[in-house]
Amino acid sequence: MEAKIATSTTQKLAGKISIITGGASGIGEATARLLANHGSFVVIADIQNEKGEQVASSIGSNCCTYFHCDVSNEQQVISLIDFTVQTYGQLDIMFSNAGIVSQSSQTILDLDLQEFDHLYGINVRGMAACVKYAARAMVEKHVRGCIVCTGSIVASRGASMRTDYVMGKHAVLGLVRSASKQLGEYGIRVNCVSPSAVVTSLAKRGVEEAKRTMNVYGALSSLKGVELRVEDVAKSVLFLVSDDSGFVTGQDLVVDGGLTKIPDSDDMIRYND
């Protein structure tokens, strides 16, 4: 049975076609639901086929579909873009969100270069491929589109662990800043959304470890009694891809409750989705 989507009073993305990588869970899923609620047709791209199909079905086939895509595979990214443009006519929004975290502490002294290459293949190379081919599709169709990449608060500082992840998020920020300059002449806006620890972390790590991390972020944040949710990040993405931010490009929108504005918090920045 097809699910019905609650209609927003003001649909900010009516008629827009969006791709969300990593859209089967977490921030990607929350953003898929929000963008669909604002009138966009959403293509969820992920490698979690069962979850992706379930999310697309729950949103409704009239405004969402699922497409298998491993962003570390360039040809699969090309296929994703081609499918979207050929099926729906054009691409207006790319939310390049797919990414992973390090599987170990990964300090520079014990950096596993094989794990490093694997993480970079998804978090950096995959991100670049999504931006490249989404931009090409927009330029070819003369679409003044929007591209948003998921960054992290660690993109602006160092950290005491997860060196490969921190390096990768720095690279994403460089990608966004460069692409925004290069694509501005086509009217394409490119921005970054950088959250701190998100509740969805609990699904990816040990529950107790993740809860401790969330407590640390909560203690350091300027906003007391507030926990960052995936929906908060999704709302930031909506702002960046809608006309509300029509003159905003090349920006890193930090969603961290003021965490990065507090001195001496670098060593506590260890996790992020």
Give short descriptive properties of this protein.
7-stranded parallel beta sheet; globular; 273 residues; alpha/beta; Rossmann fold; disordered C terminus; 7 strands
Task: Summarize the topology.
Elements: E1 17-21, H1 26-37, E2 41-46, H2 49-59, E3 64-68, H3 74-88, E4 93-96, H4 113-140, E5 146-150, H5 163-183, E6 189-195, H6 207-220, H7 230-241, E7 252-255
Parallel strand pairs: 1-2, 1-4, 2-3, 4-5, 5-6, 6-7
Helix pairs in contact: 1-7, 3-4, 4-5
Q: Report low-confidence residues grouped into runs of 5 or more.
A: 1-8, 265-273
CATH superfamily: NAD(P)-binding Rossmann-like Domain
What class would the helix/strand composition place it in?
alpha/beta
Largest sheet: 7 strands, parallel
What's the number of domains? 1
Instruction: Report the portion of residues in β strands.
Output: 5-15%
Q: How many helix segments?
A: 7
Task: State the name of the first-level CATH class.
Answer: Alpha Beta
Shape: globular
- The second-level CATH architecture is 3-Layer(aba) Sandwich
Computed Rg: 18 Å
Could you give a quick summary of the protein structure above?
With 273 residues, the chain is an alpha/beta fold.
Descriptive overview:
With 273 residues, this protein is an alpha/beta fold. It has a single domain (17-268), classed as 3-Layer(aba) Sandwich (Rossmann fold), CATH 3.40.50.720. It is 41% helix and 13% strand. It is built from seven helices and seven strands. It has helices at residues 26-37, 49-59, 74-88, 113-140, 163-183, 207-220, 230-241; strands at 17-21, 41-46, 64-68, 93-96, 146-150, 189-195, 252-255. It has a seven-stranded parallel beta sheet with strand order 3-2-1-4-5-6-7, sandwiched between helices. Helix 3 (74-88) packs parallel to helix 4 (113-140). The longest helix is centred in the middle third of the chain and has 28 residues, at 113-140. The protein is globular. The two termini are 32 Å apart. Mean pLDDT is 87; it is low at 1-8 and 265-273.
